[in-house]
Amino acid sequence: MVEHQQDLNSKKEYTTNFSQERPAIQVALFILWRIYNKHYVIGSRLFRSEIISVLRLKDQNYKEALLFLEGAGAVVNEVIIIETLPKHLIERYGINHE
Known about the structure:
Elements: H1 2-11, H2 23-36, H3 48-55, H4 59-71, E1 75-76, E2 79-80, H5 87-93
Helix pairs in contact: 2-4
């Protein structure tokens, strides 16, 4: 069941050009997508192993994604600090609803 769930997640387009983005940006966009769709709320802790296994990417990509998210003001020390995404991020990356 878990493997089937992972297969579905890896094929999903979280943004309009998700598959064309660099792997680190894919990780960041996946996390932003989860915030946008209320899977993460303020205070939610990110778990590297879960995110890496869902997207099937390398650990280094996760670290770079955290830097991106910290710069965007969404995450600090692997904890979500925003409730909703700024409109400019939604528009720039074309973040989709579920």
